[in-house]
Amino acid sequence: MPDRIRLDGRVAVVTGAAGVIGAATVRLLAERGARIVAIDRRTEDLKAVIGDLPASAEAVAVGADVTVEDDVLRYVGVAMDRFGRIDVFFNNAGIEGEVKPITDYSLDAFRRVIDVNVVGVFLGLKHVLAVMLKQNAGSIINTASIAGLLGSPHTAVYSASKHAVIGLTKSVATECAGTGVRVNCVCPGLIESRMLGAIFEGRYGSTATPPRAIERVPARRLGQADEVAAIVAFLASDDASYVSGSAYTVDGGRTAG
Ligand SMILES: NC(=O)c1ccc[n+]([C@@H]2O[C@H](COP(=O)([O-])OP(=O)(O)OC[C@H]3O[C@@H](n4cnc5c(N)ncnc54)[C@H](O)[C@@H]3O)[C@@H](O)[C@H]2O)c1
């Protein structure tokens, strides 16, 4: 198949890069020619992701906590020192948090989900966008979820955090009016992953995918992390030059009807 979307020489910063979706995206962006700054708090797993890239890939790993502003400034600093610019920012780190009814949800657990999924996304947006506005160029892709579009049982806090990511995305896209910076988010559906298994376990008592979950997906299967990465690569590229402020579903049609 022809390699339609190329990102040669582009500098891509990816958070949550040791996770399923982050790692798949690091791989795809590197294959398409991007230079990578990969961020995660799980440094050993992060090194493994970088170690698996093709020898030709240029990539640097930074252990950082996205909820700590000094860590965010540090990863932006590493990107600038090493590459001098940031073209693509995949603002992706996130947690599912506890999966339980709201009446059983502790305030600490609530705050932790908001801290990672909303404060972490805010801090990344704030500091990477400042760089991109100076360049007058760049593409930011936040990771929301179909949980940012729909409600569902036992994940109210996760859902609230992802609604917030969509709100941040659309608002910041409007703040970038007249600049060369685009801001979008992806809304993955049921992606085969540890996180999905954890949500099913909290909701139904087993990590296995219940048949009724698949019946509600027109594609009649779980999605793969690579299928999310493909949309991120598109949104990162000049092929998406007229796309900003969008919440791009990658959900096999789950939210269509
Ligand atoms: N898996 C799915 O079905 C699904 C669906 C919709 C949206 N999402 C979203 O996609 C993103 C990636 O999810 P995933 O399935 O790859 O999960 P994952 O748990 O495999 O990856 C998330 C990564 O984020 C990192 N992370 C968490 N908190 C961090 C922090 N404070 N600082 C730095 N790194 C931190 C984790 O260490 C992990 O490597 C998340 O935002 C998630 O909410 C996932």
In short:
By secondary structure, this protein is an alpha/beta fold. It has helices at residues 20-31, 43-51, 69-83, 107-135, 156-175, 194-204, 211-215, 225-236, and strands at residues 11-15, 35-40, 59-63, 88-91, 138-143, 181-188, 247-250.
Describe the SSE topology.
Blueprint: E1 11-15, H1 20-31, E2 35-40, H2 43-51, E3 59-63, H3 69-83, E4 88-91, H4 107-135, E5 138-143, H5 156-175, E6 181-188, H6 194-204, H7 211-215, H8 225-236, E7 247-250
Parallel strand pairs: 1-2, 1-4, 2-3, 4-5, 5-6, 6-7
Helix pairs in contact: 1-8, 3-4, 4-5
This protein binds nicotinamide-adenine-dinucleotide.
Can you give a write-up of this model?
- With 257 residues, this protein is an alpha/beta fold.
- The chain has a single domain (11-250), classed as Rossmann fold.
- It is built from eight helices and seven strands, in the order E-H-E-H-E-H-E-H-E-H-E-H-H-H-E.
- It has helices at 20-31, 43-51, 69-83, 107-135, 156-175, 194-204, 211-215, 225-236; strands at 11-15, 35-40, 59-63, 88-91, 138-143, 181-188, 247-250.
- It has a seven-stranded parallel sheet with strand order 3-2-1-4-5-6-7, sandwiched between helices.
- Helix 1 packs across helix 8 (225-236).
- The longest helix has 29 residues, at 107-135.
- The protein is globular.
- The mean pLDDT is 97.
- The structure holds nicotinamide-adenine-dinucleotide.
